[in-house]
Specification:
Layout: H1 2-6, H2 13-20, H3 25-42, E1 48-49, E2 51-56, H4 82-94, E3 99-104, H5 110-126, E4 137-141, H6 147-156, E5 160-162, H7 170-176, H8 183-196, E6 199-202, E7 205-206, H9 213-226, E8 230-231, E9 234-235, H10 252-273, E10 277-278, H11 282-287, H12 291-297, E11 302-303, H13 310-313, H14 329-342, H15 356-365
Parallel strand pairs: 1-11, 2-3, 3-4, 4-5, 5-6, 6-8, 7-9, 8-10
Length: 366
């Protein structure tokens, strides 16, 4: 029984898989309510913003599901200038977001790292204010790097890093990546990110062909064992110009199945991991107009407003149906705040919104 499992102090892989597999609407609602209560007790009901700047779609990796993989023909490859990024960062700070995410395709060449170091330092210096005495919080999502690169980027002023494992099932990982990308190297990079001092973020895709509820349960156990601070999960949405795209998997029935599974995964992650930050991702809105609101109702506490300049958004489509590619930043801000209020929650403006789990694990190590 679902209620019996939720009364436990700890969960086995089988317990987690049963919760994730719940199909009865009453059971799912019970799980959702439990997740919301756990969230309220351990991280509070406030929602934290991470203004998302997708600053480059140039990528040296070739993931089989991604729209900006190096083998894909993208209408225009781009990299924002320092001035373009700073304009968006200053707008972000002025609107009270508190934090931003710098996301790009994967590169680790020296020119790229130097460019990123300069941008991070400038953002930190030029967004300081009475409300943000240390400037904007900066999260990076720029792929696998060397230990030295991670340390350089941390020293430049970034303090959170997101690198999704995508799946902890080794066979599935190999199915969705070319041979040049290694599961063991991805895990090693997560360890290096933590060693560099970052708050560690990772996550998985939900609904990969061949993925089981037990796979997702093992993903959650991996998050706990890796002692991660933040999670960014989302539904599996392959770009139609990639090898992983399967016609029929974008049917309404299949989308609804993956969408429900994604919400359950958010809820079970909250119940199991308690004080981590969990994002309600844009991909949820790609599947359902109010998907991001539902993510908040299921226990998420992070939203990522789109701040990529409008003229570049159409060239950063990791998956089909990505929302907000024709909107400007002002519209996105007003829209998201309305969505947050719609579910009875408030945005924590002018706050970094750091992971409470990170603060706890640092305190334990001292």
């Amino acid at each position: 029984m679902i209620t019996d499992i939720l009364e436990k102090n700890d969960f086995s892989a089988a317990d987690l898989a049963e919760l994730i597999s719940a199909e009865n609407n009453d059971d799912i609602e019970f799980i959702r309510n439990k997740a919301y209560e756990v969230m309220r007790l351990h991280v509070g009901e406030e929602v934290y913003y991470r203004g998302l700047i997708e600053f480059s779609n140039i990528c040296t990796s070739d993931c089989y599901y991604c729209g900006i993989r190096k083998s894909n023909t993208v209408p225009k490859r781009y990299t924002l200038t320092k001035e373009e990024i700073l304009t968006q960062a200053k707008w972000c700070a002025g609107e009270g977001y508190g934090s931003l995410v710098l996301q790009s395709g994967e590169r680790n060449d020296e020119r790229f790292i130097e460019y990123l170091e300069e941008i991070i330092t400038s953002i930190k210096n030029e967004t300081k204010s009475v409300k943000l005495p240390d400037g904007l919080g900066v999260t990076l999502c720029v792929g696998e790097q060397t230990a030295n690169n991670y340390k350089r980027l941390f020293d430049a002023g970034a303090h959170r890093y997101l690198l999704r494992i995508e799946t902890t099932n080794r066979e599935l990982f190999e199915k969705i990546h070319p041979e040049t990308q290694s599961f063991d190297e991805r895990v090693n990079c997560l360890k290096l990110i933590k060693e560099a001092g970052f708050q560690l973020g990772t996550g998985v895709m939900i609904g990969i062909p061949g993925q089981t509820a037990l796979d997702l349960a093992n993903d959650l156990l991996f998050f706990r064992n890796m002692d991660v601070d933040m999670i960014g999960m989302g539904p599996f949405l392959a770009n139609r110009n990639t090898p992983m795209y399967i016609k029929g998997n974008d049917s309404e029935d299949e989308k609804q199945k993956i969408y429900r599974l994604s919400l359950k995964m958010i809820a079970v992650a909250r119940i199991f991991l308690k004080d981590v930050n969990i994002a309600s991702t844009t991909a949820l809105q790609a599947m359902y107009p109010f998907g991001r609101e539902e993510g908040l109702r299921y226990g998420a506490n992070i939203l990522m407003p789109q701040l990529t300049p409008t003229e570049y958004r159409k060239d950063y489509q990791l998956y089909d149906g990505k929302p907000c590619i024709d909107e400007d930043a002002d519209d996105c801000a007003e829209c998201l705040e309305a969505r947050v209020k719609f579910v009875g929650r408030q945005v924590a403006f002018d706050s970094w919104g750091d992971s409470k789990h990170f603060k706890s694990r640092v305190a334990k190590s001292q």
